[in-house]
Amino acid sequence: MNPFPHYSSHKEKLKLLSSGSLNLEENVRQFIGRIEQNIHLNCYLQVYKEEAIARAQEISNKITNGTGGKAAGMVVAIKDVLSIKDKVTSSGSKILSGFLPLYTATAVQRLIDEDAIIIGKTNCDEFAMGSSNENSAFGKVLNPVDESCVPGGSSGGSAAAVTAGLCDAALGTDTGGSIRQPAAFCGIFGLKPTYSRVSRYGLTAFASSFDTIGPMTNNLYDLALILELIAGTDERDASSAPLPVPRYSVNLTSEEKLTIAIPREYFTAGLQSEIRDKVEELKSFLSVQGYDVIDVDLPMTEYAIAAYYVLITAEASSNLARYDGARYGFRTATSGNISDMYTQSRTEGLGKEVKRRIVLGTYVLSSGYYDAYYAKAQKIRRLIKEDFDKAFQKADIILTPTTPTTAFKLGEKSDNPLEMYLSDIYTTGANLAGIPGISIPLGKDSRGLPIGIQFLTKQFNEENLLKFSNFVVQNFKS
Q1: What is the residue-averaged pLDDT of the chain?
Q2: Catalytic-residue membership of 178
Q3: Does the annotation mark 154 as catalytic?
Q4: What is the pLDDT of residue 255?
Q5: 3-state SS of the chain?
Q6: Are 171 and 119 in contact (CB under 8 A)?
Q7: What's the CA gap between 33 and 23, in Å, rounded?
Q8: 246 preceded by a cis bond (ω within 30 of 0)
Q9: Which long-range contacts (CB under 8 A, 24 or more apart) does 264-267 make?
Q10: Catalytic residue among 9, 13, 79, 199
Q11: Catalytic residue among 178, 196, 199, 423
Q12: Percentage of residues in the chain with pLDDT exceeding 90?
């Protein structure tokens, strides 16, 4: 696949646009052409061709006049769980096919307000439930690095679109690793912000106390810029943090030598040896560079997956009760009563994995099981948060693998839900604790598949996370 686009970051793109060396309308047409040439990847559910070209013309004039926004001309893809007014938002589900929202998600609107060009909606696991992007009602997404492999999930369409050069950047969502895991599998950068750093208004709810929105890009500058633009309090989301947003993109460099922690529990028998070796290589490099690298314990890690799947299925069971065929979306024609219509619409409109999680969630919330499962999982969540708090008293950054393996084959784990769930073993902890995490690409394995390395830090400390990531990217030669 030919390298495209021909610039390294939005900063460089904006310079080319300002000097007249790059024509924005032609740039957008090239993206559209590449999307059509790579339709088999199934990255996009919708492409806004005419609107994107018209926006390019409008924004070109703004750039010429010196009135363009910070994201002027950035071509962005949006995961199809984020609403755009009067554009179909299906969340990868048959039950929402044809649904037209009446409003635009805050994160998307903030990019539009800064003159980004929204080129389309990307495919995803149904209601963001999955680790492989094989659960979409509209077909699986292929990994552009190796089309026999999954791109990861649930933001696999966004990750694959960035990797294949079908957009400049994309928005994804992360409930248990759904930005970081596909970023690792596709060899790009993916950031899960602190919970509440970015407004969830306009996001189709999966698990409301876990869901986060974040950027996926080919470089750290764009990652920092997008976070800078979409973060911040929002009166339409009561959970959004009323805190100032740093200028992440302005200063990505730092001379400070941080303390880096390696959690012992993240290096178990299931970790691919080449990923383990890459972490060891990076650990040695950081020590030589003057960083204090220490080992820490996160003893509750072994309970993270179990607690995570109890809690998110419980929240999903509650959130997805609204999709009943009565008010919007898919409805089954039936001559029976309203109860039959509810049953048939949900049976036909929801996919296998979504129904599995609804049933699990309903079970753990049911009388007699609430205390045994849901209440206990909430206690474990608090203990996991305390583990991280203690670790961050000793260290600034926690370094881990993003995933236990590189991208696996399409269909390899489809018949084994538990094995699929374990794909998230290194990412769910950040969501349980509400802390930010980033996956950066760091070399490839013997099959040529990307290796992702994860950095975690304390809440609302994305600035240090980005600076440290930038140091590694600029100086570590894998």
Answers
A1: 95
A2: yes
A3: yes
A4: 85
A5: CCCCCCCCCHHHHHHHHHHCCCCHHHHHHHHHHHHHHCHHHCCEEEECHHHHHHHHHHHHHHHHHCCCCCCCCCEEEEECCECECCECCCCCCHHHCCCCCCCCCHHHHHHHHCCCEEEEEECCCHHHCCCCCCCCCCCCCCECCECCECCCCCCHHHHHHHHCCCCCEEEEEECCCCCHHHHHHHCCEEEECCCCCECCCCECCCCCCCCEEEEEECCHHHHHHHHHHHECCECCECCCCCCCCCCCCCCCCCCCCCEEEEEHHHCCCCCCHHHHHHHHHHHHHHHHCCCEEEEECCHHHHHHHHHHHHHHHHHHHHHHHHCCCCCCCCCCCCCCCHHHHHHHHHHHHCCHHHHHHHHHHHHHCCCCCHHHHHHHHHHHHHHHHHHHHHHHHHCCEEEEECCCCCCCECCCCCCCHHHHHHHHCCCHHHHHHCCCEEEEEEEECCCCCEEEEEEECCCCCHHHHHHHHHHHHHHCCC
A6: no
A7: 15
A8: no
A9: 264/295, 264/296, 264/297, 264/298, 265/297, 265/298, 265/299, 265/301, 265/302, 266/298, 266/301, 266/400, 266/401, 266/426
A10: 79
A11: 178
A12: 89
Q: 188: which residues sit within 8 A by CB, 6+ positions away?
A: 159, 162, 163, 216, 217, 218, 441
| Residue with token string 């492999």 | 149
pLDDT at 1: 45
Query: pLDDT-derived band of residue 419, with 50, 70 and 90 as boundaries?
Result: confident
Contacts of 269 (CB under 8 A, 6+ apart): none
> What token pair was written down for 77?
């893809």
Phi, psi of 457, rounded to the nearest 5 degrees: -150, 180
CB atoms inside a 10 Å sphere around CB 65: 8
* 452 close to 402: Cβ distance less than 8 angstroms: yes
Identified catalytic residue from 60, 90, 154, 199 = 154
Inter-residue contact 406 to 419 (CB < 8 Å) = no
The CATH number given to 1-478 is 3.90.1300.10
Q: Are 198 and 107 in contact (CB under 8 A)?
A: yes
Instruction: For the full predicted model, state whether its pTM sits above 0.85.
Output: yes
Distance separating alpha carbons of residues 189 and 276, to the nearest angstrom: 19
Q: Show Cβ contacts of residue 195 under 8 Å, excluding neighbours closer than 6 positions.
A: 209, 210, 212, 239, 431, 434, 459
| Residue 6 predicted with pLDDT over 90 | no
- The CA distance from 12 to 9, in Å, is 5
Structure tokens at 373: 């499962």
Cβ 159 vs Cβ 181: under 8 Å:
no
Does residue 409 have an active-site annotation?
no
- The residue assigned the tokens 């203690």 is 390
